Automatic annotation (TrEMBL):
GO molecular function, one term: cyclic-guanylate-specific phosphodiesterase activity
Main localization of the protein described in the UniProt heading: membrane
Keywords: c-di-GMP, Cell membrane, Hydrolase, Membrane, Transmembrane, Transmembrane helix
Native organism: Kluyvera ascorbata
Membrane topology summary: Multi-pass membrane protein
Domain EAL: 265-514
Keyword Hydrolase in record: yes
UniProt protein name: cyclic-guanylate-specific phosphodiesterase
EC nos: 3.1.4.52
Matches recorded under PANTHER family: CYCLIC DI-GMP PHOSPHODIESTERASE PDED-RELATED, CYCLIC DI-GMP PHOSPHODIESTERASE PDEF
Amino acid sequence: MQSAQGIIRLYLHKRIAVCVIVALCAFALTLGIRFISQRSINQHQIDALTAHSVDRLNRILQPLKTQRAEMLALVGQPCEAIHLPLRKLAVMLQTVRSIALVKSGKLYCSSALGSRNIDVHSLQPQLPTKNPLLLLTTDHSLMIGSPILVQWFPASADGQDGVMVSINIDLISNIILESAPPLITHVSLNVADQHYQHDIGITGQLDSTGNQVYLRASTAFPFSVAALSPGPNRLALTNLVTDLPLALIMSVLFTWIAWLATAGRLSFSREINMGIAGKEFGLYCQPQMDARAQRCIGVEILLRWNNPRVGWVAPDVFIPIAETQNLIIPLTRYVISETAQRLHLFPQDSDFQIGINVAAPHFKNGKLLKDLKQNWFNVNPVQQLTVELTERDALNDVGYPLRSELGNHQIKLAIDDFGTGNSSLSWLEMLHPDILKIDKSFTSAIGTDAVNSTVTDIIIALGQRLNIELVAEGVETQEQALYLQQHGVHLLQGYLYAQPMPLEAFPEWLEKHKKLNSQAP
């Protein structure tokens, strides 16, 4: 059976376990949220950078599309006649290095160099072509070897005539292809199978070793921008180190909240409430005997608790806790209700007494009488109800009017554990209880030299002087029973006659007792 220390230890361990789990969850959850948040931020930054680069380059190329018709109108005209307009057009298109006119596959006029006569195929092997084309290549005429974008607009059906616009991307690449370490290590402009990075140049293959590639394609022109990054996940994971202090703070905070919250939920008072709701408390009874007639004249109702979570819990553990946690009234109400449902187990005799322990606070504001009306008198009991008031409680809540009302309802009042607590002669004279129950500590002192032995005689004399019926608890030996009878105490209760038993076992015990009593000489 669980001791008070064991119960307290158990629930302390439960609270600690819950707090440890909460601490770990708070720590992990904080890091998890920070990881997800940082990963989302990283992904957003990658998307924003690539979108920005594509947008900037679109705005650079868009004027070429706008001026396409004007440039194509110049194809075929003598270079001397259109060189100046061609140069003005190139200046207006700020990022353009040169505009070249091609006739029959020959570059014959350049905004930068004037009249020429060069096979365009020798400059750009993919030109001329009958379809518009955007190339990422190197310059072979002005700044030889520098990276350029070439935009080709055909002016004839066979593609031999057209306009070739060279754009100097080396000047603008540090703006439109700007990286953002450590999140984005490199940004690449991709046209067909060619890739350009500001610090590397043009390559035929994009080197993404150790990085992930995040690609965004233009919807207006045939190019894309690729961001090379270790990845949002990896960087978010790396950044978690800086979030450890925050995770620790949140862990401590939620642990403290859990400790406060579990004070009520993981407490023994909650267990008692659960026990009442789940009807875990078992009703037991111990017979009270008339020693002169060797006849059972009543029982005291007792509680036993086999808690399915912690095992058997002793009454001297859960009763004091129930009293301190203001749960003794619900517990008593439970006893009254459950006993009333089992009255058929006892003799249907108005002289048969059923004693139920009640704490003094239950008398306050008529609570006890209200509970009795709802849970006891509603079943029309035949047996005599005895309310046993535990003397260890302060008796301030029990006044003469309440005592009178108990009498009006034919309810007897007993003072339980008399001699151990708060009652006094003045209280006895005011309440005038029907019964005094001598505590087992005094009964066990009979036949010894203990001080309690003398107190026993005083209690007996007091009860007899006040004409109060006496019941001795804890009678275990024939010597004690004989002594009590010799001193006028004939109502006895204790292991000498019977141990506490489940209510359902009482009819069988009573039948056996009657048989043994009838067979006695």
